[in-house]
Amino acid sequence: MTEKQAPPVAGLLLAAGGGRRLGGRPKALLPHRGRPLVEHAAGVLRTAGLTHVHVVLGARAADVREQAELGDCVLVENPDWADGMGSSLRAGLDSLAGTGATATLVSLVDQPGIGPEAMARVLAAYEDETSLVSAAYDGVRGHPVLFGAAHWAGIAATATGDQGARAYLKEHRESITLVECGDVAQPYDIDTEADLSHLE
Q1: Contact call for residues 47 and 107 (beta carbons, < 8 A)
Q2: Of 81, 147, 151, 139, which Cα lies nearest the Cα of 109?
Q3: 180 and 186 in contact (C-beta within 8 Å)?
Q4: 3-state class (DSSP) for residue 119
Q5: CB atoms within 10 A of CB 196
Q6: 35-92 pLDDT tens trace
């Protein structure tokens, strides 16, 4: 029996944060539409057409595993999650090595206003392992972002603290394909108590 061909683009959901400005409530566990936010976010990637999704967990990872239904995802634990988003991005890219994926679509757990329409638009701009694509909102770069595998080592080398891929993207801005998503998504973050009003 031949091994099933891996899809060219894998989803990568960063969901490790501890919710420092939310009184230490991990964002992955915030309730949204009756389920943990991480479950909703993983579902958005699936609805956008991604069959292979890796989820990076950190703060209270055991609770997230227990409370969220993520059985069809690859769960990646980042022991260094407290160092910031950069460490989670590195852990996620590491987990994709050897999967056969030639690109990854990266989304953040705390942006429920970005749905499958925006994800699918960015995904549609994928060409090959050299692709570098980002959603834009009124011309301003945001999430999700798609990184071709040719960029993974460079991104991992520069992903520190809460910067994620920002430094790499700034350096390669001429190569980024921007896909306008402002008409189908709202790129707010759930960072503070006031932001919780966005959850349903």
Answers
A1: no
A2: 81
A3: no
A4: helix
A5: 14
A6: 999 999 999 999 999 999 999 999 999 999 999 999 899 999 999 999 999 999 999 9
Tell me how long the chain is. Answer: 200
pLDDT of residue 125: 97
Q: Is the dihedral of CA 131, 137, 139, 143 positive or negative?
A: negative
d(CA 144, CA 132): 11
What's 175's DSSP letter? G
Q: Is the pLDDT of residue 97 over 70?
A: yes
115: how many CB neighbours lie within 10 A of its CB?
A: 17
Per-residue model confidence as pLDDT tens digits over 160-193: 888 889 999 999 999 999 999 999 999 999 988 9
Q: Taking a C-beta distance cutoff of 8 angstroms, is the pair 57, 28 a contact? A: yes
Which H helix or E strand runs over 167?
helix 166-171
Confidence check: pLDDT of 5 > 70: no
Q: Which residues contact 35 (CB under 8 A, 6 or more apart)?
A: 68, 69
In terms of DSSP bridges, do strands 53-57 and 9-15 run parallel, antiparallel, or are they unpaired?
Answer: parallel
